[in-house]
Amino acid sequence: MINAAQLAATVFIALAGGIVVGTSFVALLVIFDLIPRLAQLSNAYHLSHWFETALISGALYFIVADQFDITIKLPFVLSNIITGLFNGMFVGMLAAALTEVMNVLPIIAKRLKISQAMVALMMAMVLGKITGSLVDWLLFHK
Predict the structure, then answer these.
(1) Res. 91 pLDDT band, cuts 50 70 90
(2) Residue 14 included in any domain
(3) pTM for the complete prediction?
(4) CA 124 to chain centre
(5) Closest listed residue to residue 136, CA positions, set 94, 69, 97, 91
(6) Overall domain count for the chain
C-alpha cells in the first residue's frame, strides 16, 4: 500500500521530469532556430505557423498516445515506412540546424567555392538522413 508521502513524491518527481524534458526540447528548438530555418529553406515564411502547429501537434499526440497506450493498426511495412520517414525528417532537420548553428556549411561552401549548391547540399543531408532512418527501421526493427 502506498502512503500519501510516497504518492506526493512520485507525482512531484514525474511532473519535474516532464517539465525538464519539455523545457529541454523547446530550448533545443529555440537554440537551433529549427522552425525559422525550415521556413527559410523552403521559402515558406507565410506558412511558418503551420510548421509550429505540426510540431506541437505531433508532440502532444505522441505524449497522449504513449500515456494511454494508443496504437494505430497498420501493415508492418507501411507503419515502418511512415515511422522511418518522420524520424528521418526530424533527425535530418535537427542535423541541418546544428550544422547551420555551428556555421560549418558556409565556411565549407566558401572554401570549396560551392556557394551556389548550398540548398542542394542541405537537401542531400536531409535525404541521406531519411534514407538511413528507413533502412534502419525496415531492416533492423522487426
Answers:
(1) confident
(2) no
(3) 0.52
(4) 17
(5) 91
(6) 1
